[in-house]
Amino acid sequence: MRGGELGIKSRMLGGALRFNLAGYYQKFKDMQVKAGSVVSNGGIAVRTLNAAAAEIYGIDMDFAWSPPQTEGLSIYGGVNWNLAKYNDFAVAPCWWGQLASEGCNQLLDTTTGRFSAQNLKGAPLLRAPEWTANAGFDYEMPVSDSLKFRLGSNLAYSSSYSTTIENFYYQRAYAKLGATLGLGRQDGRWMVELIGDNLTDKLTAGSCFVEPVADSIVLARSANRNGATTRGPTGIGETMCAPNPGRSLFVRLTIRN
After folding, report:
1. CA distance 93 to 161
2. CA nearest 150: which of 178, 91, 191?
3. pTM to 2 decimal places
4. Which residues pair with 92 in a beta bridge?
C-alpha cells in the first residue's frame, strides 16, 4: 500500500471556529477481501479473495463553531467525498444466476462450458459511499447552582453504496437522526443522559451476500448455472443482509471521581 494526505488545520474568529480540510490518496496492491457464501449443508462460509489492486482518494472537511454570543453552544459538521474503486479484480465472484452476457465471463470451466468469475475493474469498493456528511449541535446551560442541562442532536447522511462483494445489491442513500438529553453536576462529577440513535427508524443493510438459500437446501446447489447463456431453475439468488440497528433508546450514567 502507498498513499498520503495533505491538508490544513485552522482556528479562526479568536478560536471560536475550528476548520479542517484534507485531501488523501491510497493505492493498494494484492488487496484481500472477504466473500460469504452458502455451502451444500446450508451453512455459511467466508472466503478470502485477492482483489489484486484498488485505489481510494477523496476530500474531507469538518468544522466546529462555538458562538461567543451563546455560551455553552457548539455547532459542528463535516462532509467527505470519497472515490474508492478496484483497479483490477478479474476473479471476483459472480452473483447467483448471473449470465455470461451480464458479466460473468471470466475463468472458463472447460468441463461445464460455463464461467465462474467476473471482472470488477472500475467498480466501487464494498461499503464505500461517495458522499457522507453530518451536522449537529451540543448545548449546555446551568439550571441551578450545582446542576447543568445538556441537549444535543446529530444528522448523518450517506449516499448509496455496494453491500455485496459481487457488486449486486446497493444500499440506497439515507439520513439518520440522533439526539441526547442530559442532566448532571456543574463540576462534571456525574451525568445522566437519555440517548436516541436512528430516531427515524431507518433500516439499512450491513454485510450482504447473494445466494439462493432455500434452493441450496432443496437442490443442494446443483442448479447453479452462473456464467451460462440461460438461467437455471433457481433463477437469481436472494440477497441476504445483516441489518444495522434500527431506532435505539438507552440511558447512560457517567460518574467521575
Report:
1. 18
2. 191
3. 0.84
4. 118
